[in-house]
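Sequence in, structure out.
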Amino acid sequence: MAIITRRNFIKGVTGTLLCSGSAAMPAMARTKKTLRIGYLPITDATPLLIAHAKGFFNDEGLRAERPVMIRGWSPLVESFLSDKFDVTHMLLPIPIWMRFKNKFPVKVLAWDHTNGSAVTVRADAGINGFADLGGKQIAVPYWYSMHNVILQMGLRKAGLTPVIQPQSLPLTDKQVNLFILPPPDMPASLAARKIDGFIVAEPFNALAEIKLKARIMRFTGDIWRNHPCCVVVMKEEYQKRDPIFTQKVISAIVRAQLWVKKHRLETAHILSRQGGGYLPVSQTVLERVFTKYDLTTYGKPAQPAAIRHPEWHSSRIDFQPYPYPSATRFITRALRDTLVEGDNSFLEGLSPDFAARDMVNDAFVKKAIIDIGGLSRFGEVDLTGPWDREEVIDI
């Protein structure tokens, strides 16, 4: 897996700064004509992929190349840094790390989806909850990820200690070893018994259920209600130099989100190998992602009980574009208590309120939401204060 080193990061940033003058204008002109999209093969990317497949970018007057699939988060981040893509989706903690640790001018413009991830374990591992993860090997997709944050919240509540060490070293029954695996590699590692479980975005939880008879230990959306996971990001300079282009991109993505909510089975077909081939999995797997979230399968008395809050009326994966500041503030605070590889001291002096204001530009998505009929079209919302909410977390 590619690693973003300090040297490579500085090289990428330097290249951007050198292009910040008039020399950057030809590249900017190209992005106005052709939109370049990068994505991981996960359902987090659904709005970007459906906006392309259904011609919503074209309807906005944009010419969009077919989105380019990248296997891991590090290569996707590196591609974005080197200006190969104009827009992509990223796990919300990644732009926090990019903007405030590495001073890269990335902006969050919208949420890409909500929920859509789970903790998946081997059927024979004897794991029914966080307390059973002691002494286990658990893969996460990226250190700066919602997955790492939520997993460690659960471990701490269970009295367990996350560690980062070679898998060959022994663990106590109170330690849980965490390490990075690209999402597409997780099911194979589970099948080979190299790991005991993983926490990741769909469709790899559903794939492991169907192909490996693995079990969902807990859906992340049942821990943090309708939490953000991936967000839509662009470079700050794009918004400033061409706000019309930016608005068209976001309007198409918001339209795609609303379309997906109403056409879940058709979305599964379009994304599948049998359809548009955007994701390297079958329609059967994707139908499970978009429609399978029921108490008969996942609720008590099933063990493990992956759904413990049916009263939340959540979905396995859902789509809502507004980037609530309360969620950005929460994840900025939570990252301080999350074990990662490398130096995360930049978080100590980072104000959550400042992070939410400085990193997120919600002007484009607000306009797109209003133009499409208002935030209530995406689900339950407090119409007396639609642009604010309280974060609900129960492990």
